[in-house]
């Protein structure tokens, strides 16, 4: 038995069921294969199909009613008057054919007296469903037949509102051109809720022109209080913003947080909108760069964005934005830790950020966080390196040995030599500090110097080279810490043989064997660690001094 013949013996109900799963092209092929398929939609079978249409699969399959053009189907709906008034899962046939976009069956239902404004359980009319699916010809037929375009569904949406939400531009344009809407009705669909998803369509522009045609004044106080300019800006709709500004919308209108449209554009990194709004605000004679209710300016907003827009930052500076005194700390911090291009731009354009006092304070604070708070944020290394680069270049005068911002006389070099968690980066900072002229001999309040710290914390070869560099530049190699320990004590204790050798070459015999607060000298330390070579090194140095 061939597959074609076998299909003719399948029960009619089964073939209808199989057809539910097929898209129109496959369904057409199936109909050509099954000789009886076009005759299967008998009144009995069709009624059963209609009444079972509540589950999602069958509900979506109603979209396929657009292709119901069989003479058998047309004949069925012409001869079954009861179906016009029956509720199929809380909807009429007119609802379902409007949803499917079948103009022929919609007109047939209307000609037979179907209730054009009937509402389903969601209070949608056939016009709602046709508008939601963008079936323009069906919408036209319903409107021409007298459908009420102002009926609201359970969410308060009219067919126009539904078409806007579903981004059906052609339907929106037709309804605005064909229906005499009251100004209030158009204003409702111009609200944020209805325009939320229309950023990239021409729908907001249509609504704007419809409101203008109705006589609405966008320059009025009422219009400003509605915040249409703010909404258009937040949606990134530059054309609508241009229209609103050209029609007199106040560019200084603010939202509940005191933010202007410019602030919103800056928060989104939208340079074209920002340029447009700055121009409008300056033309109006006001300051575009005023702070919002929390004291944040557009410039600060751009600087603290997770991805600083360099072109937008340049635009603000070129347009006259200045760094407020209250913003200096936060902007400086963002510049020091942010992209190199942003840092260099602000070094050139915002000199108030780079005072000696400010940079010395930052230098000490960042190194304190790295050394004492064990902050692992590499941005602190980046910021510190940039400050030192400014100091070394001479562009800004920075006292890299200043401890005036420390309660116990700690210097930046003191903290840098105390960093243990990232010694490679710490070594780079120490080298830059030394290049910038940092003093290695300044003790803190208890006598500990940067050299004491680096002898204690250094482990790798690079740091050991730094130790030698610092010892060579020291003018007081006999400096003692709070425990009475000299550099030699710590060099022996932490096994720095080259440092020991260098220190011994510079020290007197008395200094070599001076004891700490407990009376222990460097030889005691070597004996405690069992370092034979270090013991021999110390004894040999002592003998040479005796000779």
Automatic annotation (TrEMBL):
Gene3D superfamilies: Ankyrin repeat-containing domain. SUPFAM superfamilies: Ankyrin repeat. Keywords: ANK repeat, Repeat. ANK repeats lie at residues 92-121, 122-154, 294-328, 408-445, 483-506, 518-547. SMART domains: ANK. The keyword rRNA processing does not apply. The keyword Transferase does not apply. This is Uncharacterized protein.
């Amino acid at each position: 038995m061939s597959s074609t013949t076998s299909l003719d013996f399948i029960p009619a109900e089964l073939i209808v069921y199989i057809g539910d799963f097929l898209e129109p092209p496959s369904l057409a092929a199936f109909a050509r294969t099954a000789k009886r398929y076009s005759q299967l939609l008998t009144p009995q079978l069709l009624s059963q199909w209609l009444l079972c249409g509540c589950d999602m699969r069958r509900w979506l399959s109603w979209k396929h009613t657009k292709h119901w053009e069989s003479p058998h189907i047309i004949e069925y709906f012409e001869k079954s008057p009861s179906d016009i008034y029956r509720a199929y899962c809380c909807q009429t046939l007119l609802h379902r054919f409007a949803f499917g976009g079948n103009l022929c069956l919609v007109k047939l239902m209307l000609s037979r007296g179907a209730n054009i404004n009937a509402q389903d359980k969601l209070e949608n009319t056939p016009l709602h469903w046709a508008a939601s699916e963008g079936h323009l010809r069906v919408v036209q037929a319903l409107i021409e037949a007298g459908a009420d375009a102002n009926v609201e569904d359970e969410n308060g949406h009219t067919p126009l509102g539904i078409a806007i939400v579903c981004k059906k531009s052609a339907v929106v344009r037709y309804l605005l051109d064909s229906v005499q809407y009251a100004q209030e009705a158009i204003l409702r669909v111009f609200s944020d809720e209805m325009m939320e998803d229309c950023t990239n369509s021409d729908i907001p522009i249509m609504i704007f022109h419809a409101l203008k045609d109705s006589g609405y004044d966008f320059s009025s106080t009422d219009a400003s209080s509605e915040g249409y300019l703010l909404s258009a800006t937040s949606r990134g709709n530059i054309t609508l913003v241009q229209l609103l500004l050209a029609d007199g919308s106040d560019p200084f209108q603010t939202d509940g947080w005191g933010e202007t449209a410019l602030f919103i554009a800056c928060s989104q990194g939208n340079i074209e909108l920002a340029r447009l709004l700055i121009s409008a605000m300056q033309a109006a004679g006001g300051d575009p760069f005023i702070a919002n209710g929390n004291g944040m300016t557009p410039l600060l907003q751009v600087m603290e964005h997770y991805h600083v827009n360099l072109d937008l930052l340049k635009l603000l500076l070129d347009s006259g934005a200045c760094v407020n005194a209250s913003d200096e700390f936060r902007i400086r911090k963002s510049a020091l830790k942010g992209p190199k291009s942003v840092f260099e731009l602000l070094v050139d354009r915002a000199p108030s950020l780079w005072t000696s006092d400010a940079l010395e304070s930052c230098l000490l604070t960042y190194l304190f966080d790295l050394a004492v708070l064990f902050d692992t944020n590499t941005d602190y290394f980046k910021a510190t390196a940039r400050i030192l680069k400014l100091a070394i270049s001479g562009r800004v005068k920075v006292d890299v040995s200043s401890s005036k911002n420390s309660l116990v006389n700690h210097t930046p070099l003191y903290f840098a030599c105390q960093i243990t968690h990232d010694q490679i980066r710490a070594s780079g900072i120490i080298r830059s500090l030394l290049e910038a002229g940092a003093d290695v001999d300044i003790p803190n309040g208890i006598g500990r110097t940067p050299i004491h710290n680096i002898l204690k914390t250094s482990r790798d070869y690079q740091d050991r080279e730094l130790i030698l560099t610092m010892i060579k530049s020291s003018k007081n190699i006999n400096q003692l810490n709070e425990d009475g320990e000299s550099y030699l004590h710590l060099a022996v204790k932490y096994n720095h043989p080259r440092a020991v050798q260098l220190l011994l070459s510079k020290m007197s015999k008395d200094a070599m064997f001076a004891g700490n607060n407990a009376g222990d000298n460097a030889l005691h330390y070597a004996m405690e660690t069992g370092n034979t070579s270090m013991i021999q090194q110390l004894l040999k140095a002592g003998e040479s001094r005796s000779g």
